[in-house]
Amino acid sequence: MIYADGNLFLLQTRHTSYLFRKTGSGHLEHIHFGKSIISEKAYERALESGNLEEAFKLGKDGLLSITNAIGPSHKFGGGNMNNYSAEHPEVFLEMLGLEMSSFGKGDIREPLIELTYADGNTTSDFLYDSFKVIDGRQALETLPSSYDDSGALAVAGSESGANTDKTQELIVILKDSGYGTRLELIYTVFADSDVITRSATLYNDSDVDVRVERLLSTQIDFDTPALKLTSFHGRWADEMGMHTSVCTGGKVVCEELAAGESGSRSNPFVIVSDVDAGEDHGECIGFNLVYSGNHYEALSSNSKNMSRFVAGIQPVGFNWLLTPGSKFEAPEAVMAFSDEGYRGMSIRMQDFVRKHIVRGSWRDKERPILINSWEAAYFNFTQNSLLYLAKEAKKCGIELFVMDDGWFGQRDDDKRSLGDWYENKKKLPGGIKELADKINKLGMMFGIWVEPEMVNEDSDLYRAHPDWAVTVPGKPHSTGRNQMNLDLSRTDVQDYVIDAMKKVFSAGNVSYVKWDMNRIFSDRFSKDLSADRQGEFQHRYYLGLYRIMKELTESFPEILFEGCSAGGNRFDLGILSYFPQIWGSDDTDAFCRLDIQRGYSYGYPASTVGAHVSATPNHQTLNSLPLETRFEVACPGCFGYELNLCEMSDSDKKVISDQVEFYKKWRKVFQFGDYYRLPDYGYMIVSKDKSQAVAFAVEKGSRPNNDYRKIKCVGLDADEIYNITNRVVPLRLKDFGSLVNAVAPVHVKQDGIIHNVMDKMVPMNGEEQKACATGASLISHGFALNPSFAGTGYDQDIRIMRTGDSRLYTFEGSTLKA
């Protein structure tokens, strides 16, 4: 719901309010973004009447009275502060909370916009001109953005009558009349998700060029000098580590400075919160950008007991020549508030991404269980070896076979052939079509790997078009993984990629595409841009990439696309606007994935995160973990296997078959349920109707004789009665080592002949725990796990969880309520 009258602006969801006002000087003063300033009952009254004013029960001027009561008053500034103008002696921009800021009129804090006009002036003075409220969501023209598919809407507030709890948009127009520039601040209210988004569009209405040095997406001013910025950092194969910084002065920054992608080093998702906010308490706001390039998020604090947060395109290395009559759109910024800590914010943000970012035929579909050939074969495969792997996968119930890198050109290693998108007939004599047909005959879908944004110097494409590579003519060039970026800012290169990929995706019955991007940028330069426009290169690259992705996903709407950038190096909402899932990390070590996937869960739903079971010792860390643990860690996500089934024992393949069967039963919960983080790296996922749930516990450092471990349940229906069962973990007699001699009638040598025979002849399983309890009791106290092994005795009820072991517990609601 939106109320707007030209002086007051209120953006309202069921639990969140965003309030600002126009000052007498024409500036937009930010008052509040956070917990709703009206009660939920009042919100319901407003929905029924279609008028937010009536919700306040204070008459026509109710909102004005509230704004005056909760908003600050201003009369005099500090001794060395600059007054905005003689006409407005009470306006000192440095001490105002502002919806947007620029340099030159007294606000010396972080700006939303920086311009250089044709006369060299860098002062901007954008003042209120008008507003409009629109039903639904208007998409950005040049960039991916959120969407609304909820049907017909009505405008709220003073502009209309009956209202619905649906999506609306407020556009506030500001003008710098001295230079003929117009700035539109765009606010979209997604009431169903308790999310508000912001973006900005700059228009050049003059007859001369304007140079844009910075145009960020959102700016929020807070009336507190101390807030906490939580951001997520890492590196290749170690993404999404959670870091916190308290800003009581100066500035804290999360940014991708020059890599040219949203980045494993710094993800664009951040959280601004109270200093003492935590998982289940405190006020916090999650911010994210619908963008895939270099990004910038900054939290600063000044001497006026205020803080400011800004986010958008990284200003360093960026500028844009805005010609007369043209416009520039900033990416959309997503904002989700919660007064119930990170947990409440995460649920809202995850819902929003599922409903309003991910789109297409796969948005709500359960993702197929796949096997990927990469860690099984790397570049060394033939059609027959792939078919052998696929047959073994089919026996285990796996649904999708993916042929990874190495199928095209002369691609026997990572030094050659990127860009040459034709089949290697030595490996695939019948091409993609024959292999896809044979995979389909097995009853499996077929998928393929591509890396369309790259080129090797040793390739037919580079030899034919060396100017298409991103290099600086006549200067040495830095490479990554022996490859160079293609210049996607050029239309002819975009056209080549589109045409080449259409031929690949049409060559056979392709159901899945893994789209990789394995290097960052170094020398950012386009031979197609003039010297004064090289600062536009990186943004133009992503405009080109988005054009490619849009055309291909629209041409192949039934293909399941998965983004990948050396793992999670480009895990962002821009990619998710086209591809419904992204490979979480090239690190498949389950213990590492506990941290990586937990990091993603703060801002991204499980249905967007690719997670696989790989071999042991792990190929990235050489760590060894049980097959069951690797499975249970990978469950909350787009699940699959990345190992050589052909070389596994029959007993391990039987375990995988059981895992696949279990996952299919619980897949919808894992992929589309509400994800809650639990202490000690646990998780609990609850179906939307709260009828089913799964909970995960892991042992990172086992200790004996612990009978008091429990899972403190979250998200269940307090009135429901749940039947609880653990997933039984296979055990072997040899797991007990020489301890078997404590009960054996004769001495058994460890790993000797008798020991091995006993291991095969004596079947064993882990404990089986069954219980029944109300949701209220499980939420209030928790679910107690069976007693743990202590070395003093063992029976079928003892829980054996060694370091590296894990357990899954399922919760199924009965038809009876408590």
Structural notes for this entry:
The chain has 818 residues and is of the alpha+beta class. Helix content is 20%, strand content 28%. It is built from 15 helices and 38 strands. It is globular. The model is unreliable at 151-163 (pLDDT under 50).
Beta-strand fraction estimate: 25-35%
Helix content: 10-25%
DSSP strand tally: 38
> Mind describing the biggest β-sheet?
10 strands, antiparallel
What secondary-structure arrangement, pairings included, does this model have?
Elements: E1 2-4, E2 8-12, E3 16-22, E4 28-35, H1 40-49, H2 62-70, E5 113-116, E6 127-135, E7 168-176, E8 181-190, E9 195-204, E10 210-222, E11 227-235, E12 238-247, E13 250-255, E14 266-273, E15 284-289, E16 295-301, E17 307-313, E18 320-322, E19 327-329, E20 333-338, H3 341-356, E21 370-372, H4 374-377, H5 383-395, E22 400-403, H6 431-441, E23 445-450, E24 454-455, H7 460-464, E25 484-485, H8 491-506, E26 512-515, H9 537-555, E27 560-563, H10 573-576, E28 581-583, H11 590-601, E29 609-614, H12 627-634, E30 638-642, H13 650-672, E31 674-677, E32 683-686, E33 692-698, E34 710-711, E35 720-726, H14 753-761, E36 770-774, H15 775-780, E37 783-784, E38 806-817
Parallel strand pairs: 21-22, 21-30, 22-23, 23-26, 26-27, 27-28, 28-29, 29-30
Antiparallel strand pairs: 1-2, 2-3, 3-4, 5-10, 6-7, 7-8, 8-9, 9-19, 9-20, 10-17, 10-18, 11-12, 11-14, 13-16, 14-15, 15-20, 16-17, 24-25, 31-32, 32-33, 33-38, 34-37, 35-36, 35-38
